[in-house]
Amino acid sequence: MLKFDEETTQVLDNAYRGRDITIRRLENLASLAPSPGERILDIGCGNGLMTSELSRAVGPDGHVTGIDPSASMLTSARAHCDAQANVSFVETTAHDMPFQDQSFDGAVSVQVFEYIDDIPAALAEIYRVLKPGGRLVIGGTHWDTLAWYSRDRDRMQRILSIWDDHLVDRETPAKLPHLMRTPGFTFDHTRQISFCDTHLRSDGIAMMGLKLIQAYAVQSGAVSEGEARDWVEEQYDLARNGQFFFSLSHFICVAQKL
């Protein structure tokens, strides 16, 4: 799994404030549809931007709890939500949450479940902490939807294969409709959001992917720093020459505990 040091946390923070991920975040928020006074669980809260949005939605009579296994991410999340009194954070995972049964009206998890090694166990735990009628929204990427142009197709495929190794499951959205039913959720629907770019924008998903994949490929030891740098530089060159192309789809899966 990618090590979220200070540099990679900063890369994520910049992208998460950009247009693409803001759209993704707000679409997941809209699917959850939190109401004033509700108690909401943000699973894998990362840098806390979704937690902050949820805090405003539930208002002063509601509460949002963000959980994440990364201490550095939680430090960033606490900083983002410092002025919001109806927010708390816990360093834990979806498999083992220190909350009482039926504690929350809704739960949301964005770009997290592809890293969970036991999805049924996590879903059962979420089912436990949700109240009857509680909503669950899980947003994630199906990596088979990635289309990324390169003049060196072999190198692109090799580096993307290395990136696959940091995932537990690259096609989680395809499996969630069935898996969400297993603990007793009623599955509602899946919705697709696609991001397609012919410009390498500094705040876009493509730029975030470029930086994170480069970092992971080098950290893994599967490629040299020079080869990873050449891969990145080719994308900058394609962008300068009007040849850049990147497309990826995000899927929002919605279910309810009856």
List keywords for this structure.
alpha/beta, globular
Task: Note down, in words, how this protein is organized.
- The protein has helices spanning about 5-15, 20-30, 50-60, 70-80, 120-130, 155-165, 170-180, 205-220, 225-240; strands spanning about 40-45, 65, 85-90, 105-110, 130-140, 145-150, 185-195, 245-255.
- The chain has about 260 residues and is of the alpha/beta class.
- Strands 1, 2, 3, 4, 5, 6, 7 and 8 form an eight-stranded mixed sheet that branches.
- The radius of gyration is 18 Å and the shape is globular.
- The model has no long low-confidence stretch (mean pLDDT about 95).
Class of secondary structure makeup: alpha/beta
What is the string of helix and strand elements? HHEHEHEEHEEHHEHHE
Largest sheet: 8 strands, mixed
User: How does the overall form come out from the CA principal axes?
Assistant: globular
Oligomer: single chain
Distance between the termini: 35 Å
Q: Helical percent range?
A: 40-55%
Query: Mean pLDDT, nearest integer?
Result: 95
Low-confidence region ranges: none
Radius of gyration: 18 Å
Q: Total strand count, please?
A: 8
Number of discrete helical segments: 9
